[in-house]
Amino acid sequence: MPEGIGMELRVIIAELITPKFPVVVKVGHANGGYGKVCVHNHRSFQDIASIVALTDTYATTEQFIPGKCDIRIQKIGTHYRAFKRTSISDNWKTNTGSAVLEEVNATDRYKKWIDECSQLFGGGLDIMCVEAIVGKDNKEYIIEVNDTAMRLFSDTQDEDQRRIADLVVERMEKQYPPTLNPSTATGAALTGAFKVIGGASTPTASEGATKTEKKKNGGMFSGFID
User: Fold this and answer.
1) Span 192-196, mean pLDDT?
2) Helix or strand (DSSP H, E) at 44
3) Which residues are within 8 A (CB) of 49 and not within 5 positions of it... i.e. 6 or more apart?
4) CB atoms within 10 A of CB 132
5) Mean per-residue pLDDT for 89-112?
6) 29 burial class (0-12, 13-18, 19+ CB within 10 angstroms)?
C-alpha cells in the first residue's frame, strides 16, 4: 500500500479463501444496491450459488462490514467532492432506502485515495469515484471504484454536468486541435451543405407544378421528392 494513504484504511481485495460469514454476494455489475445479497450461513450461500448458476454472469463475495455510513469521493478532472450518506431505514445497504446525504470536506487524504486509484488504470482516469464504508469499528473500508457510471447527486448535479462537459471539450480540443477559425469552418461547412443541396438541377415551374399535382392526387404531401 502506498505511503500516506493511512494505516487505518482497509481495502477489500480479491481473497484466496472465502471470508467468514456473513458475506456479501454481488451478482454481475449492477449498481444502486441491485444484485447484492447478505448471506449469513453456508446453507444460504448454497441457495444463492444455485441461483447464480442459472444466470449468464459472474458473482463475487466479500466480507460483510456493519456500517455506520458510507463515503463517496468524486473526481471530475481536477475538481474533487466528498459526500457522506447515513441510512435512516435500518438497511444494511447504506446506499439503499432513505438516507441523509451531506457534502463533507474533500480532505487531502480523500484526494490521495482517489488519485492512487485513478493511476491504476493506464494513464489515470479523469472522471471517477471511490466508495468506502465507515464501519462500526470507525475504520474506513474502500469497497468500490466507479468510472463514468458514477451517479451525480441532485444538489450538485448541474454544476458537475457542466464540469464534465467542459472536461470533454477540453480533452477533444487537446486531442484534435482545431485547424480553422470556428467562424470560417462554420461558413465553409454551411457553404458546402448548400452546394450539395443546390447541386441537383432545379425543376422548371411547369415541371414543379406537375410533380406537386401528382403527389396531391396520390394522397401524398406536396413537394419535390425524387
Assistant:
1) 52
2) helix 42-52
3) 59
4) 24
5) 87
6) exposed
Q: Rounded to the nearest 5°, which phi and psi values hold at 39? A: -110, 125
Rg (CA), the chain: 28
In whole angstroms, what is the distance from residue 104 CA to residue 106 CA?
6
Quickly count: other Cβ atoms within 10 Å of residue 24's Cβ: 19
pLDDT at residue 187, rounded to an integer: 53
How are beta strands 67-76 and 59-63 bridged, if at all?
A: unpaired
Q: How many of the other CB atoms lie within 10 Å of CB of 10?
A: 19
Q: How many CA atoms lie within 13 A of 107 on its CB side?
A: 9
* Alpha carbon of residue 96 to chain centroid: 18
**What is the pTM (predicted TM-score) of this model?**
0.66
Average pLDDT estimate for 9-22: 65
* Cell output for 1: 500500500
